[in-house]
Design a protein that fits this description.
Strand content: under 5%
Structural class: mainly alpha
Radius of gyration: 15 Å
Number of strands: 0
């Protein structure tokens, strides 16, 4: 991350992103994965990993609830639709691009 972005600014932007994603349920995880190679679950995993690296203890479900704004099982029931073969292929291609960023 750029050194010009303070931790406080990065945290504020992240909180705004989470709030935005909690509002935009129409942007499904499969669509986010297909377009950008990450989704709400990825953000939750990153939060969990960062918490662990900082000495904290957070479960995968606690992290997903923090990002989804509700238990992930509830989010899935309310907002997740069946993934089409086209969406799955697009996600696969998009995720493959992530290797270059790691």
């Amino acid at each position: 991350m750029s050194e010009e972005i303070s931790d406080a600014a990065a945290a504020a932007a992240f909180r705004r992103l989470v709030k935005h994603l909690q509002h935009r349920h129409d942007a499904e995880n499969i669509d986010l994965m297909g377009l950008a190679g990450f989704c709400r679950n990825c953000l939750a995993d990153w939060i969990m990993e960062a918490t662990h690296a900082d000495g904290g203890d957070m479960t995968k479900e606690e992290a997903r609830q923090a990002i989804h704004g509700m238990p992930s099982s509830e989010w899935k029931k309310k907002f997740q639709t069946e993934a089409t073969p086209e969406k799955l292929q697009r996600m696969k291609e998009s995720v493959a691009k992530n290797a270059a960023a790691d």
